[in-house]
């Protein structure tokens, strides 16, 4: 490609980008279709969650609850959520996936103790907002969790997934996750 063709190609990409923004903008966020259309992807970084992230994390939790057909089940308050993660005695830790100050998703975990195996990471939630799926954000979060589990010398990571959530199951299968059909979930609400 000569210099003229290269400049022309670049100018064409810029025009396509501007057109895509105009056509596909939703809630001031570019959709994944926009990024794929112009063949660029945003730079998403994964970092430790901070107290200031809690309102957005709670929005994503409510989005997940809606997807899982149980929006009324989210009863945690923002203050309780914040205190549980950033108070004097935190019981959970998290990573957020962020691009230009916008949180696309997060992964939240706590420590579970197995009398047979020792300390394990329990992945409570890994959530990527629907408009941002397909960009590799879930993989970035999962890889960060695996690194954290190794660094903290946990003997494994455990979690639950709804049996009808095929996209999540396929995602976990890429990590060679083992699914255990023998155990039933049990809970006591207080």
Features:
190 residues, alpha+beta, five-stranded mixed β-sheet, two-stranded antiparallel sheet, globular
Helices and strands in order, then pairings?
Elements: H1 3-24, E1 25-26, E2 29-30, H2 32-38, E3 45-48, H3 54-67, H4 78-86, E4 93-99, E5 102-114, E6 118-128, H5 137-151, E7 157-158, H6 166-173
Parallel strand pairs: 6-7
Antiparallel strand pairs: 1-2, 3-4, 4-5, 5-6
Helix pairs in contact: 1-2
Write up what this structure looks like.
With 190 residues, the chain is α+β, with helices and mostly antiparallel strands. Helix content is 39%, strand content 22%. It contains six helices and seven strands; from the N terminus they run H-E-E-H-E-H-H-E-E-E-H-E-H. The chain has helices at residues 3-24, 32-38, 54-67, 78-86, 137-151, 166-173, and strands at 25-26, 29-30, 45-48, 93-99, 102-114, 118-128, 157-158. Strands 3-4-5-6-7 form a five-stranded mixed beta sheet. Strand 6, helix 5 (137-151) and strand 7 form a beta-alpha-beta unit. Helix 1 (3-24) packs antiparallel against helix 2. The longest helix has 22 residues, at 3-24. It is globular, with a radius of gyration of 20 Å. The termini are far apart. Residues 23-28 have low confidence and may be disordered.
Largest sheet: 5 strands, mixed
Please state the CA-atom Rg, rounded to the nearest Å: 20 Å
> What is the number of helices?
6
Approximate helicity band: 25-40%
Shape, please?
globular
Q: Kindly, what is the distance between the CA atoms of the first and last residues, rounded to a whole number of angstroms?
A: 69 Å
Strand order of the largest sheet: 3-4-5-6-7
N to C succession of SSEs: HEEHEHHEEEHEH
Poorly predicted regions are 23-28
Content-based structural category: alpha+beta
Strand content: 15-25%
Mean pLDDT, rounded to whole units?
A: 86
**How many E-type strands?**
7
């Amino acid at each position: 490609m000569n210099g003229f063709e290269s400049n022309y190609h670049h100018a064409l990409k810029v025009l396509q980008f501007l057109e895509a923004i105009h056509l596909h903008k939703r809630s001031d966020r570019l959709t994944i279709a926009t990024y794929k259309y112009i063949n660029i992807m945003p730079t998403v970084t994964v970092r430790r969650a901070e107290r200031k992230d809690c309102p957005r994390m709670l929005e994503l939790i409510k989005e997940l609850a809606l997807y899982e057909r149980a929006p009324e089940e989210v009863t945690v308050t923002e203050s309780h959520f914040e205190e549980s993660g950033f108070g004097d005695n935190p019981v959970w830790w998290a990573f957020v996936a962020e691009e230009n100050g916008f949180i696309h998703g997060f992964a939240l975990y706590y420590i579970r103790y197995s009398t047979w195996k020792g300390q394990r990471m329990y992945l409570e939630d890994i959530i990527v907002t629907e408009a941002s799926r397909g960009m590799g954000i879930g993989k970035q979060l999962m890889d960060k969790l695996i690194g954290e589990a190794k660094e903290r010398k946990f003997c494994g990571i455990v979690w639950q997934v709804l049996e009808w959530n095929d996209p999540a199951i396929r995602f976990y299968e890429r990590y060679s996750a083992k699914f255990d059909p023998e155990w039933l979930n049990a809970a006591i609400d207080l």
